[in-house]
Amino acid sequence: MRILITNDDGINAPGLQVLNEIAHEVAGPDGEVWTVAPAFEQSGVGHCISYTHPTMIAQLGKRRFAAEGSPADCVIAGLYDVLDGTPPDLVLSGVNRGNNAAENTLYSGTIGAAMEAALQGVKSIALSQFYGPDNKDLEDPFEAATMHGAATVKALLNDSLWDDENYKLFYNVNFPPVRGADVKGMAATTQGFRLNTRFRAEAQTSPTGRKFLWVRGGPQHEPTAPGTDAAANLDGYISITPMRADLTDYEMVATLEDLLP
């Protein structure tokens, strides 16, 4: 199996090393793992692509490349340049430092990379490690992902879990904020919503008197509805959420037709 890996935390992020180990275990001794990751952190860029300017790419080692672009750029670079138009069997994105559950999904570059791979017709999975008081101070805060990542990916490689729709399925996986030994299992979930969490801007004045705005996130341990991703994570489960890039609200189409003149 040939696997392309990327992330949004950058080429030197510890989560990418965790993903590299997961990918090698999944690919097997005869497989290949290729890395194309952002040269610098790209958290929060979503599905952004560098459409109006070129992306510099550099080889750092065997099958290891850094691109000065977004995670989606890295997938495109991997597919059309590094792998020379021969697609991999699987694209893995992550392991993100922090959860990409609930509303975080919409901002995530980790998700953006998996989405781009799906749009390119390649199976893809995004993986993120939820942080919390039970794991953030561990010697390996990615312990849950390290211990359970390969098994989770292998479980999702079942042929019946993929399709040939125009907007292909991809999967959003979040590992719970617990020790690896405390993970309760895997759960199929929907995308949740934290009612009391919003991104916001906070003003700060620099020493030179200039005003800057910092974007801040809200509480990450707010409960979401039962059966959703963050709720499963906070209960100790690995959440697995099937997704598509199609944003249409199909239930609303008929209502809209009835209301339009």
Automatic annotation (TrEMBL):
Residues bound to a divalent metal cation: D8, D9, S43, N96
Keyword check for Hydrolase: yes
GO cellular component labels: cytoplasm
Species per Swiss-Prot/TrEMBL record: Yoonia rhodophyticola
Catalytic activity: a ribonucleoside 5'-phosphate + H2O = a ribonucleoside + phosphate
Class of enzymatic activity (EC top level): hydrolase
PANTHER family, per database record: 5'-NUCLEOTIDASE SURE (PTHR30457), 5'_3'-NUCLEOTIDASE SURE (PTHR30457:SF12)
HAMAP family: SurE
Subcellular location(s) of the protein: Cytoplasm
A Pfam family matched in the record: SurE
Gene3D superfamilies assigned to the protein according to its UniProt record, in alphabetical order: Survival protein SurE-like phosphatase/nucleotidase
Family according to the record: Belongs to the SurE nucleotidase family.
Molecular function (Gene Ontology), one example: 5'-nucleotidase activity
Keyword Phosphoprotein: no
Summary of the function given for this chain in its UniProt record: Nucleotidase that shows phosphatase activity on nucleoside 5'-monophosphates.
Entry cofactors: a divalent metal cation
The record's free-text note on cofactor binding: Binds 1 divalent metal cation per subunit.
The EC number(s) this enzyme carries: 3.1.3.5
Keywords for this protein: Cytoplasm, Hydrolase, Metal-binding, Nucleotide-binding
Domain of life the protein comes from: Bacteria
Protein name: 5'-nucleotidase SurE
Domain Survival protein SurE-like phosphatase/nucleotidase as annotated: residue spans: 3-194
